Fold:
Amino acid sequence: MSKLNSPTARLALLAFCLIGLGFLTVILNLMVLWFVLFAVLCGYFLFRYRNQIRRQDCILGVIFASIAMISHPLMGFFVLPGYVASAARMRDIPQPIVLYHPGKKNEFWKTMGWILAAGSCLGVFNLWLGSSQLTIAPSFQLKFLFDALRAGLFEEILFRTLLYALCIEVMGKIKPTPAQTALCLLIMSAAIGAHAVVDLIRFLVCGAKLSFRASRRK
Structure:
């Protein structure tokens, strides 16, 4: 019974439920289910950890939400409580997420260099993947920029940071093991993973149907 109530078992159950929710939202086309979950989580964290809310986090949340609202008002609205609630829950956790160590010499510039290098590589790779679909005269609209910012902010804050805060809540005040860390990563990828698997299944089914029809014609 104690093993079933262990942090690892609770994380595994949470991962199973969220992956199931991801499949359900894709199959039924009910993205609203994620919004309901996020609303419940934000309300819970904001109420329980209201004493941990800082002014700086609220200001950053308003900035992020304002940027996202330009492209999609509803998603932008959820960015604000999602960021503030996550920051409040992750205050003073045993294993904080450290972007860089300010005490180390040139650590900030090294971190920024790695971020720019990784982002540039991923951007070039994505551009190469979509190069076959580009028109002869590609155009740029400001809307495209805000669409990308909205998608990034909503995904990273709600599907990553907020769900990681949920993992911390489930584990309690412990240092996560490698297995628990892997489960946390799985949980934070639940929605995208479900979309990818469903798209793969649809692709295979569609390909099988086309192959079957082609063989019958021959």
Observations:
- Residues 100 and 217 are 62 Å apart (CA to CA).
- Residues 142-171 form the longest helix (30 residues).
- The radius of gyration is 21 Å.
